[in-house]
Amino acid sequence: WAWQVAMGGMNASQLFAAGQAQQQAAPQPAPAPAPAWAWQVAMGGMNASQLFAAGQAQQQAAPQPAPAPAPAPAPAAPAAGTWTCSCGATNTGKFCPECGSPAPAPAPAKWFCPNCGSENGGKFCSNCGTPRP
User: Fold this and answer.
1) What is the pTM of this model?
2) What are phi and psi of 62, to 5 degrees?
3) Using one digit for the tens of pLDDT, what is the confidence trace for 86-108?
4) Distance CA 133, CA 120 (A)
5) Residue 119 near residue 132 (C-beta atoms within 8 A)
6) Per residue in 23-37, pLDDT tens?
7) Longest dimension (CA), the chain
8) How many CB atoms lie within 10 A of CB 51?
9) Sign of dihedral through CA atoms 118, 120, 125, 130?
10) Which residue from 94, 97, 128, 91 is spatially nearest to 113, judged by alpha carbons?
11) Contacts from 48-52 at CB under 8 Å and sequence distance 24+?
12) What is the DSSP annotation of the chain?
């Protein structure tokens, strides 16, 4: 019918009918291929025990299911310079972007008293009362 269209010999209704006929005659998808031993069964060349053995071989050759995925790794420890707000958000700045709470005050640095040598964390020595240098 293509040459008729090219030559101007088909009208719209004829072209529509040709398209309908072509759709109805469209090939169906091919069925899945039969196992290699199926032709022997069809021809009567296999007995029941051979058929069972062929089925067992096919099951063993079938792909095995994938193993279960490994569990997710534990979350890493927070990076240095980050803090976790009371709302649960992990932050790096001076204020929480989720709730606006200020970052907690940093822990005072440890220092050693010049008089008695004890380790301290505040403004005064906890052993002798000497002010932090």
Assistant:
1) 0.29
2) -65, 145
3) 999 999 889 999 999 999 887 77
4) 11
5) no
6) 777 666 666 666 665
7) 115
8) 14
9) positive
10) 128
11) none
12) -HHHHHHT---HHHHHHHHHHHHHTPPPPPPPPPPTTHHHHHTT---HHHHHHHHHHHHHHSPPPPPPPPPPPPPPPPPTT-EE-TTS-EE-SSB-TTT-PBPPPPPPPPEE-TTT--EE-SSB-TTT-PBP-
* Dihedral over alpha carbons 23, 27, 28, 33 (to 10 degrees): -170
What is the token pair recorded at 133? 């240098």
Tell me which residue has tokens 């058929």: 51
Instruction: Give dist(CA 41, CA 16) in Å, integer.
Output: 47
- Tokens for 124, please give them: 């005064």
Q: Which two tokens stand for residue 120?
A: 């301290």
User: Which tokens is 14 given?
Assistant: 């004829």
